[in-house]
Amino acid sequence: MDTTSAPPTQPTPLTGASRAVALEVLLRGPVSRSEIARRLSLSAGSLTRLANPLVDSGLLVEVDAEHGPPGQEARAGRRTRPLDINPTAHHFIGAKVTGDDVHAVLTTLRAEVVASVRKPLSGRDPASVVATVRDVTGELTAGGPPISRVGVSLGGRVAHHTTVTAAPFLEWSEDVPLGSLLADALGLPVTVDNDLLALTRAEHWFGTARGHDRFAVLTIGAGVGYGLVMHDTIVDTPDVGVGLLGHCPLDPMGPLCPSGHRGCATAMLSRPSICAAVSVGLRRSVTYDECLDLAASGDPVAAPVITAAGRALGRLLAAVANFTLVQKIVLTGEGVRLAEVARTTVDEAVRADRDPSTAPLELDVQHSDFAYWARGAAATAIQAYVLEEEPAAG
Amino acid sequence: MDTTSAPPTQPTPLTGASRAVALEVLLRGPVSRSEIARRLSLSAGSLTRLANPLVDSGLLVEVDAEHGPPGQEARAGRRTRPLDINPTAHHFIGAKVTGDDVHAVLTTLRAEVVASVRKPLSGRDPASVVATVRDVTGELTAGGPPISRVGVSLGGRVAHHTTVTAAPFLEWSEDVPLGSLLADALGLPVTVDNDLLALTRAEHWFGTARGHDRFAVLTIGAGVGYGLVMHDTIVDTPDVGVGLLGHCPLDPMGPLCPSGHRGCATAMLSRPSICAAVSVGLRRSVTYDECLDLAASGDPVAAPVITAAGRALGRLLAAVANFTLVQKIVLTGEGVRLAEVARTTVDEAVRADRDPSTAPLELDVQHSDFAYWARGAAATAIQAYVLEEEPAAG
DNA sequence: CACCTAGGTTCCATAGTGGAAATAATGGCG
DNA sequence: CGCCATTATTTCCACTATGGAACCTAGGTG
Predict the structure, then answer these.
(1) Any atom of strand C under 7 A from CB of B77?
(2) Which of A62, A157, A252, B5 fits A166 for a cystine, CB–CB 3.0-4.6 Å?
(3) Which superkingdom, per the lineage (chains A, B) (predicted)?
């Protein structure tokens, strides 16, 4: 694969072992050579042989010892010279497609957002989506560094990272080979993925869950979304992306969801449900943030709704932890402020449903905007790029 | 194959790659050399080099082509000569320790039970447990083949496969290094494990879940137990074994459990709970099997109790599948007959709580006796033996 | 019976590995 | 300040497991 002008790519196309070294550095942040050798069960000699070409090629850089892990400052011996990824060695595009528009970001190899752009869809048909993604990609790449791969995420099912087999928001009734359509339109390799999987991947490699080999992601917003990483591998089944937890019963006294489930996750936690519940009580239409503000100030209608939602959220979090045995959950989505306003209630509910002898559940509340979701798509592209099969030896 | 006298152990102590070959054969049953090569990404040449010494050593044997997978009988080319494990190449002891006795089995490398024995505990203190395990091991090994490793399982928490850190049934108040105590007493390597993890391991490598890389095990009996395998690796955390699912709420109208949870898994599904519910209604004490028989014959008291239990079980199974994304659940334990008597109700409840677009959940009901649990302990020993670090090169 | 296909074996050049020994960089100590 | 212990990293080399090519084996087919 030739990347036209200035090649920041390694001349050596990354053999299995050197790829493993690069991945280790990417995922574990700055690490010394000796530490990498230990983690990968390689000898120090092999490590030198593998790592130094990567430094020469510009993919890795030596950084100053950042005083390492605290607690063992004054030890004898030569100091470590940690290696880190040079994040600008490669750049990626991530694009999140919604029913109305495309949000896209340009990121580094570390999924740091360099630039961001948004453009409304001219239509929901595949051709319009392809055109819009082409446009935003064009805007982001103009005059910038070459792009190694493009990631696209959307709500729905995606097969083999290329074919969209279900996309309710776009009203696509049949399979669309979006990956190949976009690859042709952009002249770049493209990876398509479910939006929640993409977000989960981003948290796994680059987010607060970096370094954790087991965790769950829970999103609340228009609905309830769910992603799971076990043993350092994301759980990817065809059933992911159908909102498996959306109708999990949480409160036998709760309101109904549009499908008729009483007190299910959607009925208790989604923004529309909460707005509806408060609006009905107040006899006027209120926004989600207004609901939370009113609850925080003790409004007699909003407060109990939010408290019930917090309790339901705690119950859901506890169930996730109990069933999957994760010790960390990343909570995000447009409705995440609920967890902050009702944090005490949430924590109490989690404790109530957890065995007291279990390790405490680590809960990470992560604010999200559209760039955050688009960054998830970029993370998918980064993973695909880093893990892709070696080119069949030319 | 004659075992008795001649040492069945390999002279070659299994290098990394040949260990992988042996493991592949152990786990995937009879497999042709070419198939192994494909699975392990090895060349055919390497495969010959690796596999044939294993055949020579007696660990693997060539078997007749069992007409392979149906559907492709008449194909051209040389027929495959599949390899299989010689299960008698090694033997193992599995012992399950309860609060009252020790059940032990002698098994092959495939966890097939060769002999079985039971002995009551003379006391619950560590010394008595060690003595009883020593006795049953002695009985099982007398005059038989040499034992490669001993596995011991019990209800409770076990650290590093050696130290029992909690064992409510044995009323041990402090950590007991049971593994090393037994290793000294037996003169054999010993692996200790939580009983549910052990059972899960057995299902994973040798049971109905063989070949599945993601599944859950659910046991109903005195309580509700739970084990999980994801990405071909068992989920092993300190929290396993504390009955995480025992108090999962399943029926807001259900009875109370001893801890005061209304309609939790224990209250709805445990044998004592079901017996209690039916006994109260009938004004007489009934056994578990009697409850099920009465329900099957339409008894007006037992039938609704069992139906409610079946519904709760279905809800629990659906939750397991929804949260962990497994597509297969092995259901076992002394109370498992519930699932057979109330199968229709269970299936209906599963469907009700699953998104209709998901893949159907595969449910495997497995009858269990004490040998079954002891076999789990043996499976732990087999795993430890097969996966153990190579002896530090003599 | 010649030919086709696919499984399995033999053999060899070589890439990649661990290990020993060397070198580098640091703190402690007399 | 010089020496030593300690740890990180590099250099170098013997060795071994690997892939690949060529070959043999064991059926089918026309």
Answers:
(1) yes
(2) A157
(3) Bacteria
